Amino acid sequence: MVSSRARRARRTVAVPLLAAALVSMLARPPVAFAASDKLLPSLVLGATGARVAVVVVPLDPKARQHAAELEQAAEGATERSGKAQLVPAQDAQNPTFAAARAEKLEQAAAKMAQGKKDLDDLDSAKAVEAFTEALELLKGADSTRDTPAMLDAWVMKAAAHATGGENGPAKKEIEAILPLDPKATFSSAFFSPDLIKFAEAQRRLAENAKGELTVRTEPPGARVWVDGQFRGTSPVLVAGLSAGKHLVAAAAGGFALTQVELPPGEHLVKLEPAEMAPALKQAAARVKADPEGPGRDAAAKDLGRALKVDQVLLVVAKKSPAGEQLDVIALRLDTRDGHNWAYRQAVLKVGDEASMTGFFDTLYQRDDPRDGKAPRTHFKESGSSVKTTVGVSLIGAGVVAAATGAVFGVMALNQSNQFAQTPQTQVVKSETMASQGRTYAWVADISYIVAGVAAVTGGILVLTDKAESGDELLAPSSSGRKGLDPKAVEEERRRAQEQEKRDAARRAEERKREEEARERRKAQEAEQKASQADDAKALEEKKKAEEEEKRKADEEAKKKAEEEARGKKKTKKELQEEERRRKEEEKRQKAEEEKARREEEAAKKKGDEAKKSDDEAAKQRAEEEAAARKKAEEEAAAKKKAEEDAAKKTPPEKKKPADEDHDDLRNY
Question: Which of helix, strand or coil describes residue 215?
């Protein structure tokens, strides 16, 4: 009894596994390419390869939310391929904008060359003018691609100011450049040590900025660039920005590139329809009507011709039934005849950048050759043959039979367990259980046999039918495979088998590369974590240093009445402004002191002259007074002498008696 239970248990496990394996084999995609080792390119390409435009067609709202994400991944793969020249959506869908940008780039290059020549000629004024014109042209170009060139022009404008000794304007330009690119460099060949020191101080301020910018778009889900760097699909939050305006660009399939300058904060950017929006809308409708048939390729070919590109990388996406994933079809199509240079299908996880990157990179690993002169296409099978239908039905019947066998096997196992637990003294009950158990076991065995035969027969029918007709399912209708002789059919089978082996080897290689990519990502993540740890340690040390500097600054602030009154730490800009005012005040005081000195010297000179004049007048007066005194003395001496002479000539009067004198006094 135990041996029978073991056999039934093994059958219960083995037969469903066999059926599942057969179903899994049938679920594999059909052979996509005929075997050929030769590549037959359709045109002779230049150094940059075929001009390729990416077009994404979402089939439902979920896929529409991630259309920009797919577009970014596909354009990135095109740029990395080295065998194609990407025509970005903003150029392909807006030819007027593309032509204007090309003209601006050409004019800006001429202005940059002229400005450098003016610098070599030591004419800084003309150099400033040339670099300013180049800067304005580049600001109006495409900030998603031309920001590095624009920053170069800006730095050269600052260099021209610095070369001409205009430190004030040079500092102003440096203050505007570093918030956009904290890594901008300023050569000592143009900038003085003071300006380089000033730039380093501004760089530290930009690197430690805490501003946040949130960009939302209408319609939502557009690609967003800030200061020339791709930041993801809207809504986008960018942290670590300094105050002032930043270059923001937004783009989406079917809409024109929108560029604005925005300060930190939350902003809504509205996109305008692209010039080619009607053609894009019409092509998308045709693709949606036949996403896996000839209508899809015909629409892509017509659209590529309207966009004036050599190839179209068409991406058709819809929500996958399996969770947060997308069912994606991608094909690289020649706009001349619709030949599919590459075709891939996959289920991609939403937000998984690595899987999207790997998926689109495979579209450029090799070009699929034509079948003779006919273009290769990849269309879904329109119907099933009788053999396939019968085979699938047999497999279904086999699965049902296997399930029935599993049920009866479990019932037989339960009867066996109950029989083993029933006392042998209960003869009737024991015999009944044994009889039922044997019946259940026979039914299970027969069901397993039927399941195996049905599954194997159905699998053979389906596989042989696919081997006979698999190439026809994907070959172009113009290839004319009807009427081939048996040898040709056998040759096709052999080629298909060889191609299947190559595809299996390629898939193994792709899995290996994916594993290596995962390992690299893990290593990068580990390195990034280590770097983050180092950054955190450096930030902690920097924070401690800043706290120490702040403590010292606070101690110094206590000694200064003005800073103590203000109650806040001065910024670098305020200190510079105070230094400027202090210098201006010193200059004004020196001017006033010089003026007072000159006035004092003038007053002193005037006083000396007045004193000299007064001294001369006083001397003259003294001389006059001395002469007058001398004359008066002479006159007095002459008068006295005359009186003496007169007295000598007059007789002496008679002297009165004393009593008469007393009488005279009384009368008085």
Answer: strand
Q: State the 10-residue block means of pLDDT for the chain, 668 residues long.
A: 42 41 38 32 49 94 91 93 91 92 94 92 91 93 92 93 91 91 90 92 89 94 94 92 91 93 94 93 93 92 93 94 88 93 91 89 90 82 58 79 82 78 71 79 83 81 57 37 49 66 74 79 77 74 80 76 54 77 86 86 84 84 85 85 78 52 47
List the structure tokens of 11: 């059958």
Phi, psi of 226 (to 5 degrees): -125, 120
CA distance 427 to 424: 6
CB atoms within 10 A of CB 572: 12
SS3 per residue for 548-563: HHHHHHHHHHHHCHHH
DSSP letter at 271?
A: P
Q: Which helix (H) or strand (E) holds 654?
A: none
**Contact by Cβ (8 Å): 149, 101:** no
Three-state DSSP class for 187? coil
Angle at 99 between CA 93 and CA 102, to 5 degrees: 120
Preceding omega of 235 cis (within 30 degrees of 0): yes
Longest dimension (CA), the chain: 213
CB atoms within 10 A of CB 466: 22
Helix (H) or strand (E) holding 269: strand 265-270
Q: Residues 211, 237: contact at Cβ < 8 Å?
A: no
